[in-house]
Amino acid sequence: MKTAVRPEHRPSPAAERAEAPQKRNDRGLLGRLRRLRKWNMPAGVASVLWLVVVGLPLYVLVLTTLRDRDSYFDEGALSLPGDLTLDNYRTVLESDFLTYLLNTAVVTVATAAIVIVLSVGIGYTVVRTLSRTSQRIFQFFLLGLAIPAQAVIIPIYLLITEMRLYDSLLAIILPVSAFCLPVCVLILSSTMRDIEEEMYESMALEGASQTRVLFQLVVPLSRGGISTVGVYAALQAWNNFLFPLILTQSRESRVLTLGLYDYVGQFRVDIPALLAAVVLSIVPIFVVYLFARRQLINGLMGAGGR
């Protein structure tokens, strides 16, 4: 005897459609509650504090450049100025600022070019030559990471003087390039080691010379590391202060880091004009860093590879 099976009670399609928005709302509410539970309160507070620490100096820097010198000393740095003015920027541009900017640009571009060319050649030699000599050369370059520029400034001064390069832009370019090479060789050698050995072997089977392998295989596949090296060398050259201070003297060879002293006198300091010069000197290298920051970070993170 067969017993009748009662069919399960199912809601009508209209009832399912009515309950669907309520279920979605419940799921959305539960999702928001879960996200709130995962939110790290100490990290949020620390982020806000860090934003204040970073944002307050930028606020003072930009706002001070838009006020005159008297109102800055009378009202204070954090007060809102009554009248905004661009006279500080006009004062800076009417001085020798453009000459300093051009000298800094020449030093930066030349340093980046020298560092890229030398570090690509040295890195390729270190990676593809398995002899002890190449490894000793690599270790020799890494020793430069432990030598501060301040410790060897007197020998550098004597060398530059003997080479009759004192008070020239080349006197800045050569030492800055030399101190950039250890880091740049480390970055590029790590990048080139990531290239598969099969690619080198296939190029060798085709009868390619070392020069062809370098320019047709290694350089295209190492563009990220080369970009990192270029940006790093450019930042070091743009912001360098020690070598221009010691190795140059005349205004014709002065760069931006020394040109800021024009607004500092023995008995007075024109702080709004000084900060206006700082803002104008930051803009070019900040734009370069803005477009290349990802390559710079990725290249530095990859420097600890194989």
Automatic annotation (TrEMBL):
InterPro entries: MetI-like (IPR000515), MetI-like_sf (IPR035906). Its main location: membrane. GO terms for biological process: transmembrane transport. Residues 1-23 are annotated as: Disordered. Keywords: Cell membrane, Membrane, Transmembrane, Transmembrane helix, Transport. The chain crosses the membrane at residues 39-62, 100-126, 138-160, 172-192, 213-235, 271-292. One of its GO terms (cellular component) is plasma membrane. Residues 101-292 form the ABC transmembrane type-1 domain. The keyword Acyltransferase does not apply. It is a multi-pass membrane protein. It is found in: Cell membrane. It comes from the Bacteria. Pfam families: BPD_transp_1. PANTHER family: ABC TRANSPORTER PERMEASE PROTEIN MG189-RELATED, ABC TRANSPORTER PERMEASE PROTEIN MG189-RELATED-RELATED. Belongs to the binding-protein-dependent transport system permease family. This is Xylobiose transport system permease protein.
